[in-house]
Amino acid sequence: MTFPIISADIEPHLNWRELTAAIEQAHRLPKAEISDSFLYRRGDTLLSRAAWIDGMGALVKTASIFPDNPSQGLPSVNGGVSLFSDTDGTLQAMVDFHLVTKWKTAGDSLLAAQYLARPDSRNITLVGAGAVARSMHSAYRAVFPDASFTVWSRRSDTAAELAAELPDAVATQDLEQAVAQADIICTATMSTTPVIFGEWLQPGQHLDLIGAYRPDMREVDDIALQRAALFVDSRDTTLDHIGELKDPLSRNVIDRSNIQADYYDMASGLFKRPSPDAITICKNGGGAHLDLMTCHYIMSKWHERIVDC
User: Which domains does the chain have, with CATH numbers?
Assistant: First the structure.
């Protein structure tokens, strides 16, 4: 049996707005069955995620996360993605891991921003200067084309390098000021302690939290969570697994009832900004169901390309 191996060559045919529309539409299908497993060795992580959506198919994605790899000139995240048929379980495609991860991660938070950020948002602060920050710059520009960007990183040289590569971007060493002046704040760090503090936040801001993926990771402090209207992409992948919410929930800083909605609530209208002056936070937990939705979008574009050829 043969199956396509879809590489990053398809990327010029992908579109951020099309992807978020596909993710939103996929959440109208039966709720995904998902399963995650984590293995740890000191600071390294082996993460395997599986999802099955009735009517769409199944996916298994395994990621190895080695934070020290960049010092050796290697990506910190590597892995593989397998897509399986919903009708007979056969292997339907192998899709480039980095392509799926890039578009899933950024598309996930872009969808949240489309619903929660003010439509007139113009100033966006990127906290972190790695591959995810670069992807978010591209994604945000598809929805907020007039936006200007401020880049902060613990290493000022990496922030300056990224800002020099990106249109309409400048670097800063003053994170508090960059947060205070932003309409949208996007965190994409490997931090285990908060880098954003609630006392810095201003009415009307939206925060996309991406970086924390382990139980010992946090990017915002307790006050930020208490001041904001809280949303997640998926309750199933965030509340009991990621330190950003698991930790404050365990200490009764916030309650599960404080999570106003996830993407399965979009159809009912619950996933929305409460008011123009509200501070909104959406925690991006990822999840294999979002990889599956993204893979189906990518595969649809691959089929269109084959037909066109």
Answer: 5-101+289-308 (3.30.1780.10), 105-286 (3.40.50.720)
Question: What are the b/e assignments for 197-214, b being 16+ CB within 10 Å?
Answer: ebebbeebbbbbbbbbbb
Q: Which residue has the tokens 């954003």?
A: 196
Q: What is the DSSP string of 88-113?
A: T--EEEEE-HHHHHHHHHHHHHHHHH
d(CA 176, CA 197): 8
Residues of the chain with confidence (pLDDT) below 50: none
- Whether residue 128 contacts residue 153, with contact meaning beta carbons closer than 8 Å, is answered with yes
pTM of the model: 0.94
161-203 pLDDT, tens digit per residue, is 999 999 999 999 999 999 999 999 999 999 999 999 999 999 9
31 DSSP 8-state letter = P
